[in-house]
Amino acid sequence: MKDITTAPFFVEFVRTATNMYDHGWDERNGGNISLMLDESELSEYLDTGKVIRTIPTEFTAPELDGKYFLVTGTGKYFKNVQYAPEVNLGLVRLTDQGQQAELLWGFTDGGKFTSEFPAHMMSHAARLKVNPANRVVMHCHPANLLAMTYVHDLDERAFTRTLWQMCTECIVVFPEGVNVLPWMLCGTNEIGEATAKKMLTARLVVWSQHGIYGAGTDLDETFGLIETAEKAAEIYMKIAHLPLKNTITDEQMHQLEKRFNFKARAGYLD
Fold first, then answer.
1. Ordered domains of the chain (ranges, CATH)
2. What residue ranges in the chain does DSSP mark as E strands?
3. Cα–Cα distance for residue pair 137/61, rounded to 1 Å
4. How far apart are CA 129 and CA 209, in angstroms?
5. Is 61 helix (H, G, I), strand (E, B) or coil?
6. Beta bridge partners of residue 94, listed in sequence order
7. How far apart are the C-alpha atoms of 87 and 89, rounded to whole Å?
8. Is 116 a catalytic residue?
9. What is the pLDDT of residues 87-141, one digit of tens each?
């Protein structure tokens, strides 16, 4: 077997976690990533018949039964992923209608997956219904998006329109907009279920006074999605207290729709 830490998907996962920490999105043990993998991707690197131990998931996700996930660990610091991936990451396979996770690699200190694992898996299940190519769920705490939830109306249409108006590329990158949840207790099935419901209509879900969830087909896409929204929020936080003399108009955003062949979320543009 080849060393799994040399696998392209693994190298990219570690690089992404490190980049997220360097961006200031994942302080201490804040944030988490999960990447869904096919068994064919693992065959060169892992004996999928060798189970290290079984970990209860405390939720049910029958549609994910038999699926493989590379995921960050609970209480683990993103800054340490690049130095000790075998401690800070784990590769699991869901079984028993998603109620059990078989650990196939990692968490060598006896740890387990992130406390937000239910929210991740529920979001994976939701996004797969919308896009069967979805593979990534990413949660982090970008400072400007978080700050924005303290001073901006949390109405999803208003929140989305503000982000779209901050930077020309925003409506192109996330034309479906951004969904928003009020503050909820993290690490629970309740916030997982609420996030998954929001994931049916958008790839970005803001957790007010907490952070953001993003989903995508690969690590680059998902990172870029969050990065774009955070850049827009940064611009907003820099100008929100100033008189606005110019903006990107709805007419101009309709021009972007035609130029880049996409359709903005229904009812979000005049």
1. 1-115 (3.40.225.10), 117-270 (3.40.225.10)
2. 32-37, 53-56, 68-72, 89-95, 100-106, 136-140, 179-181, 204-207, 211-216
3. 15
4. 28
5. coil
6. 101
7. 6
8. yes
9. 999 999 999 999 999 999 999 999 999 999 999 999 999 999 999 999 999 999 9
Contact in structure between 243 and 132 (CB atoms under 8 Å): no
CA R_g for the chain = 19
Question: Is pTM, for the whole model, over 0.90?
Answer: yes
Contacts of 150 (CB under 8 A, 6+ apart): 209
Q: How many residues does the chain have?
A: 270
Q: Helix-strand-coil percent breakdown of the chain, rounded to 5?
A: 40, 20, 40
Give which of 181, 57, 174 is closest to 122, Cα–Cα.
57
Catalytic residue among 102, 116, 176, 230: 116
Q: Which of 128, 108, 109, 97 is nearest to 34 (CA)?
A: 128
Q: pLDDT by residue (tens digit) across 181-191?
A: 999 999 899 99
